[in-house]
Design a protein that fits this description.
122 residues; Immunoglobulin-like; 19% helix
């Protein structure tokens, strides 16, 4: 084996290791992870910035979701049936025990605009 061949093989091995480390560090491309900390949705012009947020919490843990809105409305956390009024430029926080597993929609009630899809799983 020539010196150039060995260097090419070594370079290829380094590239493979770097790609593997990046894939493992990012969860292998899995974008749905369980959240143990708070999640925030920002609302601009009655729509969630960046689209409807998907967030997952672990049953037995705590649901912790904040909505910051430039639009006054009622924010409804379906399933748990919690409603909170948010003022224009205001913030509301939903923080409660994750006792019910399932998939739930959080929406601006009067605008009928989904803000988040929340999953609580065992």
């Amino acid at each position: 084996m020539t010196r150039n061949t060995r260097l090419a093989l070594l370079g290829a091995a380094v590239v493979i290791v770097v790609v593997a480390v990046i894939a493992i560090g990012s969860g292998g491309g899995d974008s749905s992870t369980k959240s143990s900390g708070p999640a925030t949705v920002v609302v601009r012009d009655a729509k969630p910035v960046g689209g409807v947020t998907d967030v997952t919490f672990e049953k037995g843990g705590t649901v912790d979701l904040t909505v910051k809105s430039d639009t006054a409305d009622e924010v409804h956390f379906h399933g748990y049936d919690v409603h909170k009024d948010v003022a224009k430029g205001g913030t509301v926080r939903f923080k409660f025990p994750a006792k019910i597993d399932g998939k739930f929609v959080v929406e601006l009630e009067n605008h009928e605009q989904a803000l988040a899809n929340v999953t609580v799983e065992p």
